[in-house]
Amino acid sequence: MNRGEVVGGLTPVASRKVRASARLFDKKEFKQRIIVKFGNAQTSGWKMNGKRIKQTLLLTCLVLIVSLNQVYAKCTDRRAPGVDWSGCKKTNKMLDDSNFNGARLVKTNMSLSSATNSQFNNSDLTKAAGYRADFDQVTLQNSIMTKSEFSRATFRDATISDVDWSKAELGRVDFSGAELKNVSFVYSNISRVRFANAKLKDVDFWRAYTYRTRFEDVDLSQVQRLSQLQLEIACGNANTRLPEDRLMPDNWPCEE
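Predicted structure:
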């Protein structure tokens, strides 16, 4: 075919341009179809994700509501053996003569409450609070009291044994007349605590803070790991019986 020959009413040059235009049109049309097809799928996907997000949020809200209701119901449970008052506020309550054996009282706030003559055997009072609370004549055995705060509370004439009371805040607690056996005050603040007429056996004072702790007339001969330095900053008198190899500090008795 000659260069200038006309085919189908078109020159070869014009024919090639037409075919190129047709191919370009086909590509554009195909691309538009792809965009429309997958664009709709993407839009549909976003709609599906939106529905799932709403469903997830709704389910989360329902779970939170149920959990809050359970916590509220737990805190309104009557006092009884095995009760779970964890995280509950029980301040200014009359809890005398109660049985809290096996109770879970983690982070329970019992400040300013009265629980005299109550039982707390095999109970968990980790991080519990009892500021200025009255626990006179309670029975507290085989229980956990670590990191609790009972400053200025009273445990007069209480029976306390096999208790982990380490890392606790017990400033000015009154243990007068109490019986303490196998109790750990390791790393606890027991400054100005009163032990008048208390009986102490196998009580561990390792690293406890004993500033002006009242040991007058107390038998300390059977306590554990009470250092000379701890005695130096505490208060006692000539009637205080000291552990073996411990000496009565020169500053005893303390000045009022």
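Summary: Residues 12-75 form the longest helix (64 residues).
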